[in-house]
Design goal:
Elements: H1 18-27, H2 29-35, H3 37-49, H4 51-59, H5 65-71, H6 77-97, H7 103-111, H8 113-132, H9 145-159, H10 169-175, E1 187-188, H11 194-206, H12 219-225, E2 226-227, H13 238-243, H14 251-261
Parallel strand pairs: 1-2
Helix pairs in contact: 1-2, 4-7, 6-8, 11-14
Length: 264
């Protein structure tokens, strides 16, 4: 066998396809940083070796603006926030952080600076609005929602029977994927037991399956996402229940909920 066959192939900056890589990276920047650190380093080398090519790509950045705005329109809130942060990182990198040694690249950035500043202002404003509205969204499952939410739904519906039989998977997912509270079709808890429901949410928070804020519990979110079996809102005094939560819950039900949550 030829000795060359046993050698690991190494991609050099000269071999890196600038056009393909920049196009893909612009729309997958966070993935590129996380999964392809070596390619990112090669890209930095390529910047130095191909100043004219990268200048063209820099000047095409404003053309991505329309696509970026369209991409975030129908996203779940957490995905939307992540994409906005990614776009801002790229824009602010060109404006403030990337140190271009070649005068062609610097000139390209200056040429589109007004457009970059407009793009920065647009996404910064969206990010600020999203932060202000964060309390008005449903819960956000932290780990692997695509895989784990259907599993949680099945267990709660079939094995533990904690939610109404007519609960749909899409309805269930909406409660755990950061959807606007106004759009939520609340899930009917299996019985009029506010302590039981509160304990379930508390266990999800304590196990970091959903976001936990120890300084202020969001009972508005809980009331918007879950209702009594008859469809009416829970009228419990949540803070009082929280103080003596485990005392108000039967040992069997506490054990069942602990067992359920331990799967995630």
């Amino acid at each position: 066998m030829d000795k060359m066959d046993n050698k690991k192939k190494v991609i050099t900056a000269n071999q890196l396809d600038i056009d393909v890589w920049v196009d893909w990276m612009a729309n997958n920047f966070d993935t590129a940083k996380r999964d392809y650190p070596e390619m990112m380093e090669l890209f930095k080398e390529a910047l130095q070796e191909n100043p004219l090519a990268i200048s063209v790509k820099i000047e095409q950045t404003p053309e991505l603006f329309g696509n970026w705005k369209n991409e975030i329109k129908d996203c779940a809130e957490t995905t939307r926030q992540r994409k906005i942060n990614t776009y801002l990182e790229l824009i602010q990198g060109l404006l403030y952080h990337y140190k271009f040694s070649n005068h062609y690249n610097k000139a390209s950035v200056e040429k589109i600076r007004p457009e970059l500043l407009e793009m920065e202002a647009y996404f910064t404003n969206l990010l600020t609005k999203g932060t202000k509205q964060q309390q008005k969204t449903s819960y956000v499952w932290q780990n692997n929602p695509d895989k784990e939410l259907p599993e949680l739904y099945s267990l709660m519906l079939n094995k533990y029977k904690l939610i109404a039989p007519e609960t749909s998977l899409e309805q269930f997912k909406a409660v755990f994927t950061g959807q606007a509270i106004e759009s939520i079709n609340p899930i009917k808890w299996h019985q009029d037991n506010a302590s039981e429901l509160l304990y379930f949410i508390d266990r999800l928070q304590q196990t970091n399956n959903i976001v936990h804020n120890p300084k202020r519990a969001d009972y508005q979110k809980l009331k918007a996402c879950f209702v009594k079996p008859d469809g009416k809102p829970f009228n419990a005094v949540w803070k009082s229940l929280k103080t003596n939560l485990e005392i108000n819950l039967s040992p069997d039900k506490q054990k069942a909920i602990d067992e359920l949550v331990s799967n995630f």
